[in-house]
Amino acid sequence: MLFNSSLKKLCSFALILVAFISCQEPKIEQLVYKGSDKEAIISNILNRRAIRKYTLEQVGIEKIDTIMRSAIYAPSALNKQPWEIRVVQNPTILEEFNKRFMAFAQGKEFQGSAANYKRPGFSIFHSAPTVIVIASDKSNPNAKMDVGIALQNILLSADALGLGTCPLGTLVPILNLPENQDLLKLLNIPEGYEVAINVALGYPNESPTAPIRYSDKVKIIQ
Ligand SMILES: Cc1cc2nc3c(=O)[nH]c(=O)nc-3n(C[C@H](O)[C@H](O)[C@H](O)COP(=O)(O)O)c2cc1C
User: Fold this and answer.
1) Can you give the C-alpha Rg of the chain in angstroms?
2) Which phi and psi angles does 146 have, rounded to 5°?
3) How far is the CA of 162 from the centre of ligand 1 (A)?
4) What backbone phi and psi angles, to 5 degrees, belong to 70?
5) How far apart are CA 115 and CA 117, in angstroms?
6) What is the rounded distance in angstroms from the CA atom of residue 132 to the CA atom of residue 166?
7) What is the pLDDT of residues 6-18, one digit of tens each?
8) 50-202 — its CATH code?
9) What pTM, to 2 d.p., does this model score?
10) 3-59: per-residue pLDDT in tens?
11) If you measure from the C-alpha of residue 197 to the centroid of ligand 1, how many angstroms do you get, rounded to a whole number?
12) Ligand 1 close to Cβ of residue 152 (< 6 A)
């Protein structure tokens, strides 16, 4: 009898403790894929996040080489490979990207992280130590699609190597402005090409959770 009532008390205490802990911890969706090595790409796709905080550590040439190899092994229509890719690690040029953005931004409103441009220390590339510029062939009607696939290869291969990335669409129209063509010349972007996307790259200094995805945008019709 005594044993039964102690056990009841213990069970109630355990239940209260579990309820308390589950109230404290917000439930975060864990995207875990338990498949074979070949299927690990699915986990990689589900868990890659846009990273907006980086450590100061620079990305070494071996990792850059693997990421660039992954980029150029992307499929492209008629295998035209209509891209020019520049991996920028020069701090002066990176700072220049920020200066050109700031010159353009004055008096304008932006959505997303660029909305914070008036804050001290703001960086349009999230202070990443490396920025990748991908330009696309203006004469190729499939170029933007092909660049999109190369971009995803960059994001996923970087993630697989323990690196963080963030696509940077905000900088694209600014780099393509006539007054910023000198910067594209400096990067040796050929005539007939325009900037299609930029990517911040570095070691992540945050682990954001996945923003919501809308599964109702997918319909299976049988
Ligand atoms: C084409 C493109 C442009 C983007 N431009 C920016 C940008 O300029 N700045 C930024 O912080 N994030 C940018 N992002 C990142 C998105 O905001 C992010 O991918 C989206 O919110 C989903 O989050 P997730 O990548 O963590 O899944 C861009 C993403 C894409 C695909």
Assistant:
1) 23
2) -60, -40
3) 19
4) -60, -40
5) 6
6) 10
7) 656 655 665 555 5
8) 3.40.109.10
9) 0.86
10) 455 656 655 665 555 555 545 555 555 566 677 888 889 999 999 999 999 999 999
11) 11
12) no
